[in-house]
Amino acid sequence: MSSIKLVRWAARAYIDFFRGTPLLVQIFMVYFGIPALVQALGFEFAFDRFLAAVIALTLNCAAYVAEIVRGGIQSIETGQTEAAQSMGMTAAQTMQFVIFPQAFRRMLPPLGNQFISLLKDTSLVAIIGFEELFREGQLIVAESYRPFELYAIVALIYLVLTLLSSQAFSYLEKRMNPARSRSRQPQIQPAADLI
Description:
Elements: H1 5-20, H2 23-40, H3 49-74, H4 78-86, H5 91-121, H6 133-144, H7 147-175, H8 178-184, H9 191-194
């Protein structure tokens, strides 16, 4: 959304790359690719698994969130901006007090979906040996030879986490609904009813 072409193109390239390539490939690029690139330049470097997982998931998620935010802001009618500017607000004040509060309510459902997707995508970092929930399940299966029961438990834990997250975002959506706040205000009786 920047008026500077170079910034706009850089953001577009970043978003297109991370939304257009599989997360699994991105995890491998961060964990294996960056250290190999740095070592080719003659430096000794290795990534901690946790740090590599956080970086890969953050880069991927940020691209999706950027599109959600852009879409939310652009969904607000231009008349809102014009009205705020006619009242003497600066561009920053218009964004802070007029555009963003309205856009945030519209962004909340897709942000909730993105959070839930991120929660489930954490299972992919098991591929680099990071011991998150899915990897712990794999290690227990290797010892117990009871894959169905253990993977069912892992799936159930993910299900509980996603359901709790979904309920939290639904609660936020209801709390931020402007129609809800209007319905809680006391109703004023017409003067004719009072006579």
